Amino acid sequence: MAFADEYREEAGEAIPIEREAFVDQFPHDAFIVRLNLAVAFGSLGVGGLFGMIQALHRTGIYRGFVSSADYYTLLTGHGVLLALVFTTFFITGIFSWAVVSSLDESLNDRLAKTWFGTMFVGTLLAALAILGGLTGGPVSADVLYTFYAPMAASPIFYLGATLLIVGSWLAGLDWFLAYRRWRAENPGERIPLRTFMVLATMLMWYISTIGVAVSVLFFLLPWSLGLIPAVDPLLTRTLFWYFGHPVVYFWLMPAYLVWYAILPKLSGGRLFSDPLARVVFVLFVILSTPVGFHHQYVDPGIPEGFKFIAMTNTMFLLLPSLLTAFTVVASMEHGARQRGGKGRLGWLRALPWDNPAFSGCALAGLMFAAGGFSGMINAGMNINYLVHNTLWVPGHFHLTVGTAAALTFMAITYWLLPQVTGKNLKLKTVAMVQPFTWFIGMTLMSNAMHRAGLAGVPRRTAEPQYANVEFENVIGGIAEMRLQIAVGGVILFVALLMFLAVVVATWFGERSQKLEVNSELPPALSGPENSPVVLDDLRVWALIAIVLVAIAYGPPLWSMVADGLLAPGSPPIPV
Amino acid sequence: MEIHRFEKLWVALALLLIVGFIGTVTYGAVGAGVKMVDDSGGTVDANALNEHPRFGEPGTYQAGENEYDVYVVSRQFLFEPGTNEPIRVPAGSTVTFHITSSDVIHGFEVAGTNVNTMAIPGQVARVTVQFDEARNYGIICHEYCGAAHHTMEGQLQVVPQSEFSSADLRNPDAVSADRTAPAGDDENEEETR
């Protein structure tokens, strides 16, 4: 096969090639990508440190860092910095790279600086409000990542969160404008896959962030400023979850972009099917938003029927993930066979496990499979009763956002960073071990969390030791689970430090004459030519998505609003 | 559009799996009769719970023969009743919990059972459950509700019928009165809407 030789040499990362780095071609855009990555990794470090402290505190191994009251400040910081700040900045970084490199079209530099600045100021404000909780001063935001009313944070927190989201909207605008410029020059051509994925993700993001934007701008911000006396806690909670599950796909879809667009090349081959990749992203646009009620299965005030609709939609969201599992594994197998892999499973050995960009993505995908199935338990309306708000839930999302997304982001940084800095990766051995370290830490922590959740141990608490409650464990002892959570949390933080060490060493290293990686990506085995053009018509899919949202959310939201927009109301309660 | 043979097979299996999952949940609701927490509890004024006929004096009310309503107010950082005095119900009876909050969002989980719900200000969560045998259960708040959230716990005592007396009821008259006494809960909540 002709392409085999052609791409085999690209797969072996040790073969030096002439520099054709992203940074040489698009210096301004590479600068924007670097800015975004810097903020992402900074918040990853701080948020990860908070995470380790929490693991030690809540398991009772060591409670000397903070008091149990201040634990919740760290918990808020951990959630906001990792789930919102790290992810959003990494995503705006890699999406900027994806759009510019696949369209061969620069971003609008002024707009790019504007959206970055908006997001950055928002992050600073939110971080200031959260960390203020440690000083005992008037500014605090110990309201956790979900900021359920009527628990009130400082208005600075809500303002910061708003700016972060508005900034991400402007980033999307920047990418849509780049696409429009490209379209004017390339009428009738299929949208390049990476750009298609970015635009589909942003469309989903626009539709789903409306919920949290309405909640914060019209209710929580004026309420925290004293402009309106009360808000309806169920309404703001519902608006939060309208956004709160789609945000999961905002983290995952960039990981999928990496798995579809880059992982096949790292495996030594090509993407298996471009059309199915598009179908998967279209399914996410349509199905991501009308699922949020599955976080509210045990909420009073919401009719059972709407919980059932959300349940069916959630279950169908399994489809794009299962399709992804097929395509990604098939692409990896194809790559392995190009590298000389043989046998039914023997090809697995031929994959480049010593390349951290590859091994990180592959391990992340493996853990996502486990996380996907524990997610199905969460989605199951009746078994959800057993696990709702228990430690099972963080066990689950540390596999999805904490590994599928975060480990993929870290892994692909090993590949992306040289291209946006023009510097070869340093501390290669550390980088090589890092994904496996993360994998081990997460295996310990999340399996113990899942099992403790089945025993009824609650999430979000500084001290899950109660005088009157005995948790009946299913397998293993509670003490053993605690130890695993603590040890796993520490190993994860070590893996995080390893990652940051590689990033810092590379970032401040000298510029290389020759780069060991390039951003050329081979075309898919099945190209987009054979797929219907309507797949690329994002307006159609947006319209269908909005109709589904209206069906799932229209009537219940209407019934909450019908008894008065602010009733039954609650005044702000400072934490 | 080119879809490979194995892809088609995979899609078919994936859809089968999904429909199977939905089927099991549907069976749970229709066949096994697993009830969801829904909007049947109605709404209340969280700022005036004292004036509410039942939440004003939370506790166990007799609703019918071997049927009890338990009204619980969650507030930072206790369940009333539950924390300072345990909730008491007789074994072998049908118990309907009515749970609300007077301040922020709390959780209400009877550890080791399916009684697991949110306590949201302004909303009443209604959960019906049968306790067959006498034993004590711990109750925990599983939603972060403030700096002392981790101290918020309570107790549920399911006691033998013989140990349960009118002193455990908030409406002791109902025991001697005839069984036509109003069950009352729905109407009462409607009134305060």
Structure explained in plain terms:
The complex is a heterodimer of chains A (575) and B (193). Chain A is mostly helical. Helix content of chain A is 68%, strand content 1%. Chain A has helices spanning 2-11, 22-25, 27-58, 71-103, 109-135, 155-185, 193-224, 233-244, 246-261, 263-267, 274-287, 304-316, 318-338, 356-379, 384-387, 392-421, 428-454, 478-507, 538-562, and strands at residues 151-152, 573-574. In chain A, strands 1-2 form a two-stranded parallel sheet. The longest helix of chain A is centred in the N-terminal third of the chain and has 33 residues, at 71-103. The model of chain A is unreliable at 1-17 (pLDDT under 50). Chain B has helices at residues 5-30, 173-176, 185-191; strands spanning 59-64, 67-75, 78-80, 87-90, 93-101, 106-110, 116-119, 125-131, 135-140, 153-159. In chain B, strand 1 (59-64) and strand 2 (67-75) form a beta hairpin. Residues 177-193 of chain B have low confidence and may be disordered. Chains A and B meet through helix 8, helix 12 and helix 13 of A and helix 1, strand 7, strand 9 and strand 10 of B.
